[in-house]
Amino acid sequence: MSNTHLLAEGVPTRRSWTVIARRVVAVLAVALVAWVAWLWWDSRFPAIYSTVPESAAVLGHGGHSRSSDELTGDHPTRSIADLGVDPALPPDVRVTLEARSADLSNATGGVFSGYTLNGSTPGPEIRARQGDLVEVELINVNIADGTTLHWHGVDVPGAMDGVAGVTQDAVMPGESFTYRFLAEDSGTYWYHAHQVSHQQVMGGLLGPLVVEPTGEDTADIVMLLHTYPGGSRTLAGVPGQTRQEFAPGSIVRVRVINTDNGTSFVWVPGAPVRVLAIDGTDLHGPGPVQQTKIRLAAGGRADLEVTVPPDGGVRVQTAGASLILGPGEAGAPETPAPAAELDLLAYGTPAATPLAHAEVDKSYEYIVGQRPGFLDGRPGYWWTINGKMGKHVPSFSVREGDVVAMTVTNKSSEVHPMHLHGHHLLVLARDGVTSSSAPWWTDSLDVAPGESYDVVFLADNPGVWMDHCHNLPHAVEGLMTHVVYEGVTTPYLLGRDSGNEPE
Ligand code: C2O
Ligand code: CU
């Protein structure tokens, strides 16, 4: 068939095709620009808003709706500010912490802008006995952004959780805030800032908290791991190797706390070790393990039972920092991390846990992904939760008393240490394989790429609770949502104009 023939039938010429194509491209380009502009616009958080839409209505602020099925119950509303400890109860432990920003130097001589509590970082070790009422007054001396304290792993009452814009306003320079909570559960915990936390935590606004069990009196020592900006890993602020005097034969509970943003492994070269507790909760029937590394998710804790040998020292080791327990200058070998990793789904002995078999009231999926888009107007490759980004991420609504099942799935290419405030999660299964171990309760759970965890928790602590990734820069990049109790409102606000910036 020839061209002449086609022309004769009135088919558009090559030139007119080009014109049509150009127009189509132009229209598509305009549509694309309009669509991207709309995506940008639609991603922006209001300058001021509430985590709980109903509070915004109460307060008369224009909030945005984070989820449509929130607050549909008939519970009377309560303000989170009222969910504290009876002010008439006298404290058993009282601490004042003065928070400052300061130029600090790390071991390599580099200077970074960091933070101190009572003049040092990490801040003082706070110790309480199980059942104690703990009272901590936080004074912000000069931190321009403001600050707060969050009690990582402690199921504090709603008003005491220390999340700026959700459970309180950031404490500005010259101001103070008093935290009061009952140390109901013994265990290893830590505290840290939850205002601009990705900067303040790394910069050193943190410290250890130990709740000792009543009765028992074993020797114990805290091993708080932290990497300061531009520095190497430290143990209680000291880089490299630290030693602690213990007589041969001593049995020591070593409380390891990972305050960094990434996973940390701990191991004990050449000696058996028992993992007594994970994230503050004792494990049932933990047996000795050897040549095995123990995982600590970011924010996570592991209590290890370590025995000082009769003829020297023993080393508790992590990448970059270690602790030698023993008499005098006792040495202890250093080894690379063992290949074998302890699987907490197959460690210890099972014990009755009613929650594992309780009837579930609510089931949620928490699927972590990643895609390009806008997060509060910024273009990037951001984290998604259930396919949503930023202000479109749903929060999880619960009622007091609910048994809540959650499947946490990681469809991204990085590990995410998932942290729910105010509750402990019971791990039921990983990738569909159910636990054959001691009940594994966690508050900081590493979910590796491709993994899926089934967890369950009891909604027994009314409030508005962050449920986020504890690789704190990831939280800034959108890996952050809340578990919201029906009927709980908050008078505190988020957004550019609020002064509160919890991530
Ligand atoms: Cu340790 Cu929301 O934090
Ligand atoms: Cu993450």
Automatic annotation (TrEMBL):
Domain (Plastocyanin-like) ranges: 113-214, 383-485
Organism: Corynebacterium guangdongense
Top-level taxon: Bacteria
Keywords linked to the UniProt accession: Membrane, Metal-binding, Oxidoreductase, Transmembrane, Transmembrane helix
Residue ranges of the TM segments: 20-41
Record InterPro entries: Cu-oxidase-like_N, Cu-oxidase_C, Cu-oxidase_fam, Cu_oxidase_Cu_BS, Cupredoxin
One Pfam family, short name: Cu-oxidase_2
Designated name of the protein: FtsP/CotA-like multicopper oxidase with cupredoxin domain
